[in-house]
Design brief:
By secondary structure, this protein is of the alpha+beta class. It has two domains: about 55 residues; about 40 residues. The chain is built from three helices and four strands, in the order αααββββ. Strands 1-2-3-4 form a four-stranded antiparallel sheet, with no helix packed on it. Strand 3 and strand 4 form a beta hairpin.
């Protein structure tokens, strides 16, 4: 065997040839692979347990507000005060707010009310732009 091939074999195999071992992995390499496989298997099992637990938690959990809790029959009725002559076009409920779209004197307006107290929180008016002077 030429000298340069012996040097490559010694470099590739390291101390394994000196110990008399001839194979693709040394005993310490096999042990490291077995340990890595065991650790990865344990991590996969742990992840599966966490995912199953999370699904069970989400499926059995209660919501922060039960359906009908806010709008039950025992809730007091609320009156919204709109200007005289207002024509309601649309009413939307969003959480604890009621959004009322109405027309008054040819203008479209939106009022946002607190659903519990009936208090007007804000009003949005749509104003037509003034004609531009040419």
């Amino acid at each position: 065997m030429p000298n340069h091939i012996k040097q490559i074999d010694t470099v590739l195999d390291g101390t394994d040839q000196a110990q008399g071992y001839h194979g693709p992995l040394s005993p310490s390499g096999v042990k490291a692979l077995k340990t890595a496989i065991a650790v990865m298997g344990a991590m996969i099992a742990l992840c599966v347990i966490v995912i199953i637990g999370r699904v069970i938690y989400l499926a059995s959990g209660t919501t922060s507000m039960e359906a009908g809790q806010l709008y039950s029959r025992t809730s007091p009725s609320v009156e919204f005060v709109l200007p005289t002559g207002a024509q309601v076009q649309n009413v939307s409920l969003n959480g604890e707010r009621a959004i009322v779209t109405f027309r008054l004197h040819g203008q479209t307006k939106i009022s946002i009310f607190n659903l519990h107290s009936g208090e007007q929180l804000t009003q949005i008016r749509f104003i037509s732009p003034l004609p531009s002077a040419s």
